[in-house]
Amino acid sequence: MNLSIVGSGYVGTTVAACLADLGHEVVTIDIDEDIVDAINNGESPIHEPGLDELVAEHGGGRLRASTDYEEILDTELTMLALPTPSNDDGSIDLQFMEAGAASIGEALAGTENAAADPHLVVTKSTVVPNTTEDRLAPRIADAGLERGADFLVASNPEFQREGTAVADFLNPDKLVFGTDDDRATALLNDLYAPLREAADGDVPVVETGIAEAEMIKYANNTFLATKVSLINDIGNICKEFGVDAYEVADAIGLDDRIGEQFLRSGVGWGGSCFPKDTDAIIAAAQEQGYDPAVLSAAVELNDAQPERLLSLIDDHVDVSGKRIAVLGLAFKPGTDDIRNTRAVPVIEGLQERGADIVAYDPVATENMRERYPDIEYADSAAIALEGASGAVVVTGWDEFGALDAEFDEMAAPVVVDGRRSIKRRDGITYEGLTW
């Protein structure tokens, strides 16, 4: 198929590269000329495992980029994968999505459309229920287009995790098609046919309404975020009793009603999805007059975990004027994304305590340096630990698990681990956050 994707961020670029790899002709539309040039030159504009190879293989060929919305006229469907940042009250800001929808409408209306079938516009970004119907479809129609005759709309949420986005796309747990027209459903089935064939058809497809599809994405993410907060709550209780929360989690994870995934207790969740999506659905529910108490509690507990981490180092070290190593800056391993990373409240808490901070991350240092240019950044974990009076582990990079003799170079070998990355051993004062 020929398709277009508006937006070349984490979602847009990954989806575009994966669809090109499945054999489709894909053009991405973005206002950033540097991103457009990078994709056309076979260079990924974002850090994501496996993505560099796909963009290098298909960039400038089956995968192209442009700043011109008229490119969509040569495609059968267009995906909207634009940012939906949070407003101060937690609700999502739809200005980019609405502007993109309006631009699609103007492009479709600006040239005679000889196509026999209406153009399908697919919402890929995460939006609250009824957004496609009430906010985006009218913006497309504003150009003088008739829904059903000139264009169709659908919702096709993504379920990709940063750090494993390529693998998640190519090996999905499910595909969700939210439509109100059989023609839209047929196009989406055609779009994903190569992926299902590669998986021998063993990919569940959920065909549902547009608002239901939008809600499924929020239900998915907030359920997982709440599961993490719940195991963190249980982990905090375990710590009070001197119980190893990970041994408890291993046992309860054997219950197929619970499952083993998302039971690693620690310093909490962050990133671009869980915080934004949880805040957004809470705000949307409250706007409807319903207070989602469990989701609100999940956010409250998550926000408190970094302070618990800091309180543990306070038990062993007066950090004022002391060199303290912060190991890990990305919100999770495998990405350079620092959006809502737990490293931010940890760094700010250490700054409030007067600590001399030295930070290290394998890939996220430059992103964090833009936010905190005045703290020291090390080129390795070993350098960060040298002469430090304490260390906190915030991101669970595998390389931290290989640290050993490096702790002997600390001025005071106190380690507070928020991700169960470090092995407890003689010669260091070790505190696990929930174990």
UniProtKB/TrEMBL annotation:
Q: Which reaction does it catalyse?
A: UDP-alpha-D-glucose + 2 NAD(+) + H2O = UDP-alpha-D-glucuronate + 2 NADH + 3 H(+)
Q: Which InterPro entries match?
A: 6-PGluconate_DH-like_C_sf, NAD(P)-bd_dom_sf, UDP-Glc/GDP-Man, UDP-Glc/GDP-Man_DH_C, UDP-Glc/GDP-Man_DH_C_sf, UDP-Glc/GDP-Man_DH_dimer, UDP-Glc/GDP-Man_DH_N, UDPGDh_AglM
Q: Which Pfam families match?
A: UDPG_MGDP_dh (PF00984), UDPG_MGDP_dh_C (PF03720), UDPG_MGDP_dh_N (PF03721)
Give the residues the record marks as binding NAD(+).
D30, T84, T126, E162, K276, R339
Q: EC no.?
A: 1.1.1.22
UDP-glucose/GDP-mannose dehydrogenase C-terminal domain mapped to chain residues: 325-424
Return the SMART domains for the record.
Answer: UDPG_MGDP_dh_C
Active site location? C273
Alphabetic keyword roster: NAD, Oxidoreductase
Q: Which residues bind substrate?
A: F159, Q160, R161, E162, K217, F262, L263, R264, S265, G266, G270, K332
Q: Name one GO molecular function term.
A: NAD binding
Q: Name one GO biological process term.
A: polysaccharide biosynthetic process
SUPFAM superfamilies listed in its UniProt record? 6-phosphogluconate dehydrogenase C-terminal domain-like, NAD(P)-binding Rossmann-fold domains, UDP-glucose/GDP-mannose dehydrogenase C-terminal domain
| The protein's annotated pathway | Nucleotide-sugar biosynthesis; UDP-alpha-D-glucuronate biosynthesis; UDP-alpha-D-glucuronate from UDP-alpha-D-glucose: step 1/1
Q: Please state which protein family the record places this protein in.
A: Belongs to the UDP-glucose/GDP-mannose dehydrogenase family.
Protein name (record): UDP-glucose 6-dehydrogenase
Organism from which the protein derives:
Haloarcula marismortui (strain ATCC 43049 / DSM 3752 / JCM 8966 / VKM B-1809) (Halobacterium marismortui)
> Corresponding gene?
ugd2
